[in-house]
Structure formats: structure tokens, C-alpha cells
Amino acid sequence: QPQAESGSARTMSLVKDAKTERVSIDRLRTLDRFDAREDDVLLVSYPKSGTHWLAEILKNLYHCRSPTHPTGQVTLTQPLEFQDPSKLGELKNLPSPRLIPTHLPKNMVPRELQTKQCKVIYVIRNPKDTAVSMFHYYQQNPHLPKVDKWATFLDMFLKGEVVYGSWVDHLLSWDRSDNGNTLFVYYESLKKDLPKCVQEISEFLGVKVTEDQVREISKKSSFREMKARVEKEKERSDANHIVCALTSDRKLIFRKGAVGDWKNHFTQDQNSQFEALLGEKINSSELASSVEY
Ligand code: A3P
């Protein structure tokens, strides 16, 4: 059951402050009624870590398994925290496997997803690049507060006063996943060798693909192709594409798609401040310490 306790309540009030007005503790409590299935796949991320990228890879992977099926036999749902309480029942009718995105920390995810040992894919990205990506997103997304200055935004990010709260607390909440059902995927690794990552993800999910299919999936999920496709879209016509909890305008998602853009934004002082404030916590996480930040 989602536990709406103080830290989590604070996170969610930050989401609410973002004027989405769509998430509340009451709504999260309705997730108690969520019926998890053993073959559900949870796509977890802190915002701006590459969630849409992973969703694209996963859809294409499942599509290889059932090429004639219109959605490749995977059903990409709306984010867990934005499920309409009155429609939770509709989820029951969705065919398996369901691919369920969420930005929630672990203690807020329905416990049944854990007891049923559903597979979890957690996307992790260098927090400095994540902060830069989120800064630009704040500037463009009308649902988020206006923050014009990078320095102001970085300060908010370091204090965890942005949507979904602290980056490092989010990661630490998922860090100690000991049941072998969680695959941690690094944005930087995807950038470095996408086919290798696609292969690893397919093995984790038990979806068999050929080398040609891995190449095809990597091509379809390249930044260039994804951005070009979205630019041709008139509006959110394909429900099987929507994963962002904070916008329905997918054009806002594909900005630069680069590793290391933080170097164009951080001053030396800001970099030192970042490391002084988050460094110790980051190094306490086995996962984050593998990210070059
Ligand atoms: P930037 O703002 O740095 O460009 P999310 O999907 O979690 O909201 O993450 C969005 C970030 O992932 C954006 O980062 C976006 O450009 C990047 N992204 C999305 N698809 C990508 C792809 N195929 N390759 C590389 N980066 C991608």
C-alpha cells in the first residue's frame, strides 16, 4: 500500500504545487486498490532521466515478439500516480504485459507490485545533466512554476524542492532492491552502446530478439528518430506513447539528448556546491557512485 508519510507527503505536495492539481495523497491511497500482476513491468525514473527513451525501447522489444499485434502486445499505461481513481478498474481489463511508468519513490508504490515480484526497470542519469534537463523543462512547461535563472533552479534542485523531491533520496529509495527483479539502466550506457543495452534489457525481460532486431530497435529509439517522429505529431494522438506525468506535449521532452550538457551550465562554484551537498549521499549509493558526475 502506498504510505503517505511525511517525506512522501512533502514530495507529493511539491507535485501539487506544480499546479498539475492531479495528484493528491488521497489519490495515492486509492492505489491500494491496484491489482498488480506478476508480468507487470514497472518503468521507474526520477523525471528527466530518459523515461521516454526506455518506453520506446520496451515497446519496440515487445513488438518484435508479436509484430502483427497493433501495440506489440505491451500496454503502456498512464503513470501510476496519475491513474484516475474512478478508472482503476479499467486497468484490470488491459491485456498483459502492462508497462507502468512512475516517478514515485519506492515507499509510495503499491506493495503488491513488490510482493508479486514484478519486474522493475530503473533509469538513472547523471544528476547534473538531469538538473539541467529539468531546468529547461521548467522553463517551457506551463504546468510548472516559472524559474528563469539557472542559479535559482539549481538551488531548488539541491534542496530537493522540485517536482518529486530530492534526486538522491529517490534513488536511495530504489537502491537496495535485493530481489533480483530490478534492472538499473544508465542513460550514459544507453548513449555509449545502445545495442548492448537493448540486448541486456531483452534478456532481463525474457523477450528474445535477433541481432537484426536489436539493430532495428536501436535505430528506432535513437534521439534523432524519436524527435523527428514527435515533431510530425499533430497532437497526443497515440495513447500508447504518453508516459510523462507532467505534460501531454511530447515536443517538450526531446531537447538535446546529450551527456555532459551540465558543463555548459554549472560554474566552478556551483559544481563544488553540488558535490559538497550531494556528493556524500551519492557515494553512499552503489549505483550513483558508478555515474560520472
Ligand atoms: P535533455 O533535456 O537533456 O535533452 P524523460 O523522458 O525522463 O522526461 O527524460 C527526458 C530527457 O531524455 C531529455 O533530456 C531528452 O532529450 C532525453 N531523451 C529522450 N529520448 C532520448 C533518446 N532517444 N536519446 C537520448 N536522449 C533522449
TrEMBL record:
Key words of the record: Transferase
Every Sulfotransferase domain range: 39-283
GO molecular function: sulfotransferase activity
Signal peptide positions (record): none
EC assignment: 2.8.2.-
Domain of life: Eukaryota
The keyword Transferase is annotated on this UniProt entry: yes
Family: Belongs to the sulfotransferase 1 family.
Designated name of the protein: Sulfotransferase
Native source species: Aldrovandia affinis
Source taxonomy: Eukaryota, Metazoa, Chordata, Craniata, Vertebrata
Residues of the full protein shown: 62 to 354 of 356
